[in-house]
Design a protein that fits this description.
Radius of gyration of chain B: 19 Å
Order of helices and strands of chain B: EEEHEEEHHHEHEHEEHH
Number of strands of chain B: 10
Radius of gyration of chain A: 24 Å
CATH topology of the largest domain in chain B: Rossmann fold
Helix content of chain A: over 70%
Helix content of chain B: 25-40%
Strand content of chain B: 15-25%
Distance between the termini of chain A: 40 Å
Distance between the termini of chain B: 32 Å
CATH class of chain A: Mainly Alpha
Largest sheet of chain B: 6 strands, mixed
Order of helices and strands of chain A: HHHHHHHHHH
Number of domains of chain A: 1
Oligomer: heterodimer
CATH topology of chain A: MetI-like fold
Number of domains of chain B: 2
Amino acid sequence: MKPKLQHLSEAIAQYLTPLLSVLACVGLWHLLATRHLNLGLVTFQNVPPPAEVLQAGLDLLASPKLMFHLASSLSRVAQGFGLAALAGVSLGLLIGRFALARLWLMTPLEVLRPIPAVAWIPLSILMFPSSEASMVYITFIGALFPILLNTIHGTMGVDPRLIASARSLGTRRWAILGLVILPAAAPSVLTGLSIGMGTCWFCLVTAEMISGQYGLGYYTWESYTVQNYANIVVGMLLIGLLGMGSSALLRWAGQRLIPWQAAGGSA
Amino acid sequence: MRPALIPKDLPDWGGQPSTLLGQVELQGLGIDLGQNASRFTALDDVSLSLAAGEFVCLLGPSGCGKSTLLGALAGHITPNRGRLLVDGQAVTGPHPERGLVFQQHTLFPWLTARDNVAYGLRMRGLGRQQRLEQARAWLVDVGLAGFERHYPRALSGGMQQRVEIARVLINQPRLLLMDEPFGALDALTRLNMQELLLALWEQRRMSVLFVTHDIDEALFMADRVLIMSARPGRIIDDLRLDAARPRGEDWLTSPAFATLKRHCLRLLHGTGTTHPLSRLSPLPGSAQATLIENP
């Protein structure tokens, strides 16, 4: 009897408490928004209450526009992130492994790195024929550097004894890159990919607000300009959900790709 | 088409006559390590020859260049002076016929024990079925049946070294180079590993060059014990041990063993390093010497 009760209270503590805290936040939001509270520094006069946001969300779910917004944002992220992963990992391997590549490429990359991806927006609009391409480019730049730097770090950190052993076991010099360096650097690369995924969404939404047509960032900004305030929050929540989803997807893929890091330690 | 390998068949690396497997010849070998101001002579004028199939231990104070010598034989360090021949052929780079085992295992963490052992056969282009079969047989031989699908990090230190040894021996090396392979293991595991290595050696008779700073270990295992001086390393004594094998407590407690041990202790003590040195790895870790691997 008693242990069962204890189990129940533990379950409550584990699952119910987070739920309650979310409900409390929504409740606070409701209070602030319905009373149109003005705190001087910040005002809730134009903030839509949760009920309105829920209604707006349901309306969007029923509308055909949702598909377009989702598809545009997802395809931009997929393209930008995919290109960044490809470029970041291959450049990172070369730079981490070969001193010559390091000498040639590191300085220009170091100059470009501190420039925030968002600062590229005006130039990228000028550089690319379509706003679509310029938005993909912004997400690409945003994801590139975390992936590149983590790959370089992982590649340079590979134990030289591992490479020596591989050579002694008959690995040809060029095969080392794929057979030893890449798997040895994989955990680092994966860290870079998940950081890159986060910055990717951040950059996409900003880019869409400025030069977009369809997409969740565009939807959010458009809702502001047409004074449909409830939709702003719907857009924000959707962006959060998609970011969370893509991170979870990446984590799941990572666990498949590097099973040797798992706790069990057996295949 | 390469003929299918029968497990534990004779090496088929170079078409060398099988009477000359693992014969090593060093002539006036000299190796300098480090760059510019920190450059120093790690090995100076080392000449020696090992007979095929011999089990030789290399004893010396830390920092005397034992590991550098192994690195050169493995083909990871280019000698600055002298010649280095294995079965009459100059060493020009790493090769599976000269297997190298480090103190800390270098198993690929992303491969299971079985795939680690099968790695060398994969590099030789053997079919998956064949190489996994041989790898399984080797894991049985080193006492790890049932651990095929374990990743290295799930194995104990002793087990990791067993996999490491199997991974090197599956390539049927003529020469097995070991750099304090059991130095990080506890006493009991260490004894088991020494016996395992001797059993494997007696079956297969590759030459072994075994670096250690443990006199007991050297006297227990070797046909010959070479003693090196402190830096720059030179061979200062060459002891031949003809105690019958398999060796056991009788040998370890015999007067001859005690005499030899005293002799080694005196020699090693007499050569005491003037200043402590960090342990040299057979790889020039921070780009100390020319790596053949990375020219």
